[in-house]
Amino acid sequence: MKYMMLVCWDAERMNTQEEPAEPTSGDESFPWLDDVQSRGIWMTGDQLAPTRRARTVRVRDGKKLVTDGPFVETKEALGGFDIIECDSLDEAVEIAGAHPVAEFGTIEVRPFWGNHAYPLRRTRRRAEPAAVSVNPLGTPPGVRVPRRPPPLRCG
Q1: What angle do CA 41, 123, 125 make, to 5 degrees?
Q2: In terms of DSSP bridges, do strands 55-60 and 106-111 run parallel, antiparallel, or are they unpaired?
Q3: Domains (ranges, CATH) in the chain?
Q4: Are 14 and 51 in contact (CB under 8 A)?
Q5: How confident is the model at residue 109 (pLDDT cuts 50, 70, 90)?
Q6: pTM exceeds cut of 0.70
Q7: In whole angstroms, what is the distance from residue 48 CA to residue 79 CA?
Q8: Which residue would you say has higher pLDDT here, 125 or 12?
Q9: Which secondary structure element, helix H or strand E, spans residue 7, and what is its range?
Q10: Mean of all residue pLDDT scores within the chain
């Protein structure tokens, strides 16, 4: 099953971070990530920009309202996410507990409930049926359609 790890930490600390001049190369080692990638658990994830770069969008009475920053003032803010795939919520919690941010922030773990909650089943795909002509009744040629019994006659 797939789980979303919402990685939160101190909003003030996050807002003091300077923007990177250019995207990081990915060459630096991050032991937690190296571990979950090597185990085939990690699917994707990334760090988010600080809340000062956020915009909150709401639509009320057909009118779009956009405000700077998060909607609610909090001590902790969402600073990143990871999507992992593992066998149980307990396993996902163990993985989250090893995340380095768990030592000074919070990792919220939630299972996916939507269409992508479970891994794609790797089954052999059946051959697509050849195009079949269909008669006006909607049945392919050669398919027997049961006849209606004759109406009952009384009397």
Answers
A1: 135
A2: unpaired
A3: 2-18+29-111 (3.30.70.1060)
A4: yes
A5: very high
A6: no
A7: 5
A8: 12
A9: strand 2-10
A10: 78
